[in-house]
Amino acid sequence: MSTLIQDGPYEYLSEGSGTPIIFLHGLMGTLSNFQNQIDYFSQKGYETVVPLLPLYSMPLPTTSVTSLTKFLKKFVDHRGYGKVVLVGNSLGGHIALLFQKLFPERVAGIVLAGSSGLYESAMGNSYPRRGDRNYIAERVRDVFAVKEVATDELIDQVFDTVNDRMKAIKTLAISKSAIRHNMTEDIKKFDVPVCLVWGRQDAVTPPEVADKFHELLPNSQLNWIDNCGHAAMMEHPEEFNTIVAKWLQSAQIG
Length: 254
Hints:
It is built from 10 helices and 9 strands. The protein is of the alpha/beta class. The protein has an 8-stranded mixed sheet with strand order 1-2-4-3-5-6-8-9, sandwiched between helices. Helix 2 packs across helix 3 (91-102). The longest helix is centred in the last third of the chain and has 16 residues, at 165-180. It is globular, with a radius of gyration of 17 Å.
C-alpha cells in the first residue's frame, strides 16, 4: 500500500513521475480503491495521484459536487500541474466532468467508470438503515459483480459512515447535489478525449447510462467489462488498466 502524504490541507497517495493522472474516488470510496492503478501506471511514465476528497470535512451548507470540484482545482494548482488526466469512479467521475466544464484548459483527458452525472441510484431508492450491518453488507455487495471486492473492511467503513449522523447528512447532501448537477447539456460541448470503462452488470449506473454518455460525449470511446459491477478498477484491475493504457496511447496522452 502506498504511503499517505500529508501536505497542508491535502492528503493523497502519489507514485511515479511524468504526466499526472489523478484518480477520484466515489462517495463511499477510499484511496485504496485505486492501488492497482497506482502500481501499474506509476511504472508506465505517469505520476499517479489519489487525493482524499473532503466529503465529510466541508461545512454542511457548501457540501456539494461544486465544492469538491473547486477543492480539486486548488489541489491541482497546489501541486503545480499543467494539464492532468482525470480518472473518476462514480461521484469521482461527476467531479471530473464538472472540472472539465469549469477548467477545460487544465484537462488532457478523462476516464469515467460507473460515473454519475446523468443518472444515480447509488443505494437503491432509500438511504441505508442505520444500525443494521447485514442490510449494509447486502447493499455494498450489490454494488459489485465480483463479490469478493466487498471485504469486511469496506462493509465496516460504509457501516460506520451511515451510523455517523453528520456523515450521513453530508452523504445525502452530496447525493442530492449530484442529482441537481445533471451534466446532459454540458457534456455535448466537451472537446476532450474521454474513455468510458463500464461493467455490464453495473446496477448503480446501468449499461444504458454508459450508452448515453457515449452518445452525448463528442470524443468518447466506450469499453465494456463482463462480470463487472460499479467499480471496474477494483473488480477487474488488469483489464481496466489495459483498456486505459491503450486509450492513453491512442489519444497521445503522456
